[in-house]
């Protein structure tokens, strides 16, 4: 059965009005996405791929970004939830979370931890912010590289009741074929039942031009074994994925991988897990 019959939720994509300074992380190799990407661009793409809704995730670390995404969610039904940004280290974090709690579309928050030293997520002010999320039923997206996995484990150990999700399967070094250290770290994180994992972003960790679906199989095997089908979410990482693959190719990789899984498991992966994790 194709995902068109399931009603797929894309748990991870982005929108932006392109600005060279704000989006300086888009380097020359990624020049194809140096432009604006908005819901009107995504609508026909998701319709043609059997996707019924998305979760829009922050790409800039400002409350203005959060407000921008919330505005789009009010305007476009395709956006079922928003993962925004707020300064978790701020002295007035409770006040800011209480403010955002009034918006039904805000589901959680994220910081671009991949750009920070691993110690960043263990500093007392950041931990205080994480501790404040649960009172408002906010989730937290953990965006990291493999060298952050140990710090992420120390983080989640302190908050057994906080829903966490690992973005982009923690960005393993697929292009280099490295897997062992990453696999060990992911297995350790998966032992905490409040930690979920997004199967997203893989193509941009592979060789942009030469990747093959088989390159992802060992990594998918690891996360399926570690997290099981009840804690994995599909995400496209559109439009960032466009650097290496089309939206359809992203779906095709996982659709083929999960082809022989049960209908129940496919429903969990493509819809139910995202809907329940983000309370869509």
Tally of alpha and pi helices: 9
Beta content comes to 5-15%
Unreliable stretches (pLDDT < 50, length at least 5) are none
Total strand segments: 8
Distance linking N and C termini: 24 Å
Short description:
The protein has one domain: TIM Barrel.
Question: What features would you describe in this structure?
Answer:
By secondary structure, the protein is an alpha/beta fold. It has a single domain, classed as TIM Barrel (Alpha-Beta Barrel). 35% of the residues lie in helices and 14% in strands. It is built from 9 helices and 8 strands. It has an 8-stranded parallel sheet with strand order 1-2-3-4-5-6-7-8. Helix 3 links the parallel strand 3 and strand 4. Helix 6 runs parallel beside helix 7. The longest helix has 15 residues. The mean pLDDT is 95.
Describe how the helices and strands are arranged.
Layout: E1 8-13, H1 39-48, E2 51-57, H2 63-75, E3 79-84, H3 93-100, E4 106-111, H4 124-133, E5 139-142, H5 149-157, E6 164-166, H6 180-190, E7 195-199, H7 217-227, E8 232-234, H8 247-257, H9 263-277
Parallel strand pairs: 1-2, 2-3, 3-4, 4-5, 5-6, 6-7, 7-8
Helix pairs in contact: 5-6, 6-7
Short key terms for the protein model shown above:
TIM Barrel, 8 strands, 280 residues, single chain, 35% helix
């Amino acid at each position: 059965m194709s995902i068109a019959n399931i009603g797929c939720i894309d748990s991870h994509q982005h929108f932006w009005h392109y600005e060279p300074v704000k989006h300086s992380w888009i380097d020359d190799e990624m020049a194809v996405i140096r432009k604006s990407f908005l819901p009107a661009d995504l609508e026909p793409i998701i319709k043609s791929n059997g996707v019924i809704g998305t979760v829009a995730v922050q790409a800039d670390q400002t409350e203005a970004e959060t407000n921008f995404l919330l505005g789009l969610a009010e305007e476009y039904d395709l956006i079922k939830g928003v993962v925004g940004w707020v300064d978790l280290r701020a002295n007035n974090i409770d006040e800011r979370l209480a403010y955002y709690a009034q918006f039904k579309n805000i589901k959680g928050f994220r910081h671009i931890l991949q750009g920070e030293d691993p110690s960043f997520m263990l500093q007392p002010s950041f931990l205080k912010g994480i501790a404040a999320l649960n009172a408002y039923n906010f989730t937290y997206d953990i965006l990291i590289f493999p060298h952050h996995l140990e710090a992420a484990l120390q983080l989640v150990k302190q908050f057994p009741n906080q829903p966490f999700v690992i973005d982009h399967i923690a960005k393993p070094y697929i292009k280099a074929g490295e897997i062992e250290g990453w696999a060990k770290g992911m297995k350790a994180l998966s032992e905490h039942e409040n930690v979920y994992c997004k199967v997203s972003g893989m193509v941009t960790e592979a060789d942009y031009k030469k990747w093959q679906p088989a390159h992802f199989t060992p990594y998918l095997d690891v996360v399926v074994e570690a997290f099981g089908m009840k804690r994995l979410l599909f995400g496209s990482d559109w439009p960032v994925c466009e650097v290496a693959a089309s939206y359809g190719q992203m779906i095709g990789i996982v659709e083929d991988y999960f082809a022989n899984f049960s209908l129940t498991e496919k429903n969990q992966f493509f819809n139910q897990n995202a809907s329940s994790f983000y309370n869509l």
